[in-house]
Fold:
Amino acid sequence: MSKCYAVASGKGGVGKSTLTANLAAALALEGSRVLVIDADIGLRSQDAILSLENRVVYDLIDLAEGDCTLDQAVLPVDSVRGLFLLPAAQFSRARKLDPDRFRKILDSLRQSYDYIFIDCPAGVERGLRNVLNAGVDEEILVATPDDISVRSAERAFQVMDSKKLNRPWLIVNRINADWVRSAGMMSARTVSQVLDLPLLGEIPDDPVVLRAALKHSLFITYDCEARNALMRTASRLAGRSLPFPCYGEKKPSLLRRLFSRPLKEVTPIDDH
Structure:
C-alpha cells in the first residue's frame, strides 16, 4: 500500500511544484514507483515541469467524471523510470474536483504505487481543503525563509490542523547561506522553530534549479547542491535518519553542542 502526501504552501512562488516533481523523481531514482497528481485545477504546471505538455489528452477532472480510464489519464515520465503523472485540467471549465470522487481515485491508485504526491493549489482556499478531505496520509508544507512566506505557511498549517490531520512536515526552500550568515535571512532551523513543525528538508538557493526549469528538465538529474539536499530529503521521507547541513549557521562549540537544545526533528516512518 502506498503512502500519499499532500504538498502545500501558504502562498505561490515558493517552489512547491518544482520541489514536488523533483522529490518524486528522487524516490523513483532510488527504485520506487511514484505518482505525481497535479491537483491545481485550471493552473496545471506539472506537465511542463516533467516535459509532458504535448502528451496530455486526459486529466484529473476527466478521470473523476468517468470520461477516461486510469491508463488513459496517467502518463509515464520518459526521463525518470518509475515516475508517472496524473495531470490537472488546463482550464477549470466551471468544474471542481469533488472530494469523494478524488478519494475513490486515490483508493484505486494506491495499490499501483509506492508513493503518491499531490501537488496542491497554493494558498488556503477550497482547492487545498478538497485535497485534505480526500484521505491523504500526510502533508508536506513548503516555505521560503522570509516573513511573508512563513506567515502564509502558518495559515496553511492552521487549515491542516483544523482537519485533525497529522502534523505536516516542513521543507524550507531557497536558503542563501551567505544571507543567513549576515542575519538577513532566517535559517531552516529558525523557520522550523517559528512554525513549530518538524523539518524534513532544507534546500539551498541554487542557480541550477532555474537553469533546469528553463529547459523543462528536473534539477534532480543535475550534479548540484540542490540535488544533494533533495536526495537527503527523499531519504528522510523513506525512513532514514540523516543530519541537516544547516546552511549558513555557525557551527556551535563542543560545549554548546553538548548542552544546547537539538533541532526539532521526527524521523518519518516508512510503513509500506
In short: The chain has one domain: 3-259.
